[in-house]
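Below sits our specimen:

——
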Amino acid sequence: MKAPSLEHLIYASVATQEFGAAQVAELLNKARAANELTGLTGMLLHSDSDGSFFQVLEGEPAAIDHLLQKLQLDKRHSHLT
């Protein structure tokens, strides 16, 4: 049996709005639920000092590609690298 192909997405970005603890928790809960449906796993880091995000994701290439397209259109952050 062939193991599924996995791809990684690692990015950093800067929030375009202020994210307090409650907003980060809400974002994380929504992301976890959506990622579970598509088989993605990973971690999300947020810095209060400069509003930056850093995320590492792993999953099947099609799911990663779809999420990257959504992230590029998300107005809550900019400077996606």
Summary: The beta strands are 7-15, 41-46, 52-59, 77-78.
